[in-house]
Amino acid sequence: MTETPALPALWPAPLADGTVHATVTVPGSKSVTNRALVLAALASEPGWVRRPLRSRDSRLMSDALRAMGVGIEETVSSSSAGSLNGAVGGEAWRVIPAALHGPTTVDVGNAGTVMRFLPPVATLADGDIRFDGDPRSYERPLGQVISALRTLGARIDDDGRGALPMTVLGGGALEGGTVEIDASNSSQFVSALLLSAPRFNQGVEVRHVGGNLPSMPHIRMTVEMLRAAGAQVDTPEAGGEKNVWRVTPGALLGRDMVVEPDLSNAQPFLAAALIAGGTVTVPDWPRRTTQPGDALRRIFTEMGGSCELTDAGLVFTGTGKIHGIDVDLSEVGELTPGIAAVAALADSESVLRGVAHLRLHETDRLAALTKEINALGGDVTETADGLHIRPRRMHGGVFHTYDDHRMATAGAVIGLAVKGVQIENVATTAKTLPDFPAMWADMLAGDVGGAGAPGAGAGA
Ligand SMILES: O=C(O)C1=C[C@@H](OP(=O)(O)O)[C@@H](O)[C@H](O)C1
Ligand SMILES: C=C(OP(=O)(O)O)C(=O)O
């Protein structure tokens, strides 16, 4: 892989000067890795997490679990158990559960999975677990998790704002029981309470009351991974009451979990084929998955691409001609920045709906996308629950990222078609992708297409 030199404060996004032809191996899923770590840490016996994502968010998760007493040994395995499609070897983390204890401080960075999934774990520890993080973590909502845990028997010291910093006064166990929460701001509130619930004395019944619950695939991911670890979970899908999940108390098993590639992080690479034309292949694309990124097969096909799931992985082809789209993204909100970037280069307008909760993500993504695309000459307006994007010829300039990995990759996508785009703080991609600039350069170097500007209608 191309070596990344020290990253400049303003990273010149490379222009695609021909079609793209590349095979891009995408690192493991953030959402799967961080769930696998939590479940393995709460198990009654050691287990393995294979092909984990190694990034800032997964590092924060493993450091936090270690600080509470869990053993995590990082090894490179040569066995075939770490493969998805028969390939041999890969990185594997051995997770050795232990009695959880404080006192310690958990740095959540700006990782939603760490700030929401770990407070319930901390209630099981003996001692005080303080939670702190990046400035943005003080603004991201946590109040529903804090009040739910109190209802279930936890003692928590906070300043009453429903956000970090706060301290869980772990008592070594949690009673559990039934709790109502409004998870319309983040599906992670539900996932957080379910993941630790097999270890609560009474398990849990979580009842979502409130507006539309976003990111349902991520809740299904939680349920499937809990079941794979031996938990009994009742869900609305399995004939249960709508918006009610029940987890029975019981031991979690030490499993051998293989992490799928992060399909949401495949997005910028697939977008490159859509914009520049050509083909990008992503190996190990799962045939069945709960990851929301799988929806890209449908969404990017509607926007002008075509794809085939083969033994080599997902083979995605674009022509450089992009169509606008009217789409509800509430189930797959984390795909919005990448879709907005492509939509800004389309031949017709787009309406992205159902994602008001993105205002509470790494940054206010609706405001940030509007401001930054418009600063390059685009024409985006914020709606109550999304974006209205009218493609317009764009020009170069600085694309600010607000410490948001998906803003940085969205800017790089636009930069493929618009000359002179500079991404401020591209290093923020390390939240979930270890080496995005090198991967991007490698993808473009794989180009065997002819010269000429990419076919994007609104490009420079
Ligand atoms: O549970 C998870 O792993 C995630 C759930 C989603 O959160 P929201 O429901 O807050 O959007 C998603 O956007 C985030 O990237 C990861
Ligand atoms: C919303 C996201 O992250 P987090 O896990 O921090 O919520 C994201 O990755 O798009």
* Average pLDDT figure: 93
Low confidence ranges: 82-88, 447-460
Determine the structural class based on helices, strands and strand pairing.
alpha/beta
Number of strands: 23
Helical content stands at 25-40%
The fraction of residues assigned to DSSP E strands is 15-25%
The first-level CATH class name of the largest domain: Alpha Beta
Our measurement of the CA-to-CA distance between the termini, rounded to an integer number of angstroms, reads: 29 Å
The CATH superfamily title of the largest domain: Enolpyruvate transferase domain
Largest sheet: 4 strands, mixed
Question: What report would you give on this structure?
Answer:
With 460 residues, the chain is of the alpha/beta class. The chain folds into two domains: 10-27 and 261-445, Enolpyruvate transferase domain (UDP-n-acetylglucosamine1-carboxyvinyl-transferase, Chain, Alpha-beta prism); 30-236, Enolpyruvate transferase domain (UDP-n-acetylglucosamine1-carboxyvinyl-transferase, Chain, Alpha-beta prism). The protein contains twelve helices and 23 strands. Strands 2-15-17-16 form a four-stranded mixed beta sheet. It is globular, with a radius of gyration of 22 Å. Mean pLDDT is 93; it is low at 82-88 and 447-460. The protein binds shikimate-3-phosphate (S3P) and phosphoenolpyruvate. Shikimate-3-phosphate is lined by residues 31, 112-113, 186-188, 191, 214-215, 218, 333-334, 357. Phosphoenolpyruvate binds at residues 111-113, 334, 361-362, 406, 432.
